[in-house]
Design a protein that fits this description.
The protein has 222 residues and is α/β, with parallel strands linked by helices. It has nine helices and six strands, in the order E-H-H-H-H-H-E-H-E-H-E-H-E-E-H. The chain has a six-stranded parallel beta sheet, with helices on both faces. Helix 1 runs antiparallel to helix 4. The chain is globular.
């Protein structure tokens, strides 16, 4: 597109981790705690994990993450480790260790005042969503907060297909992983790829726009 703006948009779907929230701050310690549990159980070899390695799983549903990370792990152990990650992430957020990207709330507030319908759309579970909602006061900006945990951890594009009729048409999705771009493509809406998040550059292929900071949305969504 020649123009750096989208005209006529009424609904904006926002991914959370890596788009609004610098989640590695809470996910890395949670992941390491769960991995230590696996080592103690004799299910994994002891090793150190760098944040860059851990961050590649952000934006995945828990089902996708474990399938790709340790697909042969037995179900009971996998569920125990997954619960450790979930509990620790929630604790980290409640303890104030999470952080929204700079200017995130100002951008959300401005878009809300411009009359956009804002919808949170995350691959996370419900408990994590609810802790984030409370900690950051997100109900002030979002009309709805939808997550994969509400829909049996279906792929994001399928969740979007189910809910998009509930909001004004002329829509756009904003996110940092291939799930977000694919969701836009499959459902026929434009997408905005956040290069500052956790996705690799190639994950933004096919996005309508790419941005390097959340503030750039205010130029694209007039």
């Amino acid at each position: 597109m020649d123009s750096r703006s989208l005209r006529g948009i009424r609904t904006v779907y926002f991914d959370f981790d890596g788009t609004l929230h610098d989640t590695i701050r809470v996910y890395a310690p949670a992941f390491r705690k769960a991995y230590a549990f696996l080592v103690e159980r004799g299910k994994a070899e002891e090793r150190e994990w760098e944040e860059e390695e851990v961050g590649r799983w952000l934006g995945y549903t828990s089902i996708e993450m474990w399938k790709n990370f340790m697909g042969d792990l037995d179900e009971e152990t996998r569920n125990d480790a997954s619960r450790i990650i979930g509990r620790e992430m929630r604790r980290q957020v409640l303890d104030g260790n999470g952080r929204l990207y700079d200017h995130t709330l100002q951008v959300l507030d401005t878009l809300h005042k411009r009359g956009y319908v804002l919808v949170y759309l995350s691959n996370a579970g419900t408990a994590y969503r609810d802790v984030a909602r409370e900690q950051y006061g997100l109900d002030r900006y979002f009309q709805d907060m939808v997550c994969a945990g509400d829909h049996g951890f279906l792929p994001k594009e399928e969740i979007l297909a189910k809910i998009m009729k509930d909001y004004p048409m002329d829509q756009v999705i904003v996110g940092d992983r291939h799930h977000d771009i694919v969701s836009g493509q499959v459902n026929g809406i434009p997408s905005i790829f956040c290069r500052y998040g956790y996705g690799k550059e190639e994950e933004g292929a096919g996005a309508t726009f790419e941005i390097d900071s959340i503030e750039e949305l205010l130029d694209i969504l007039k």
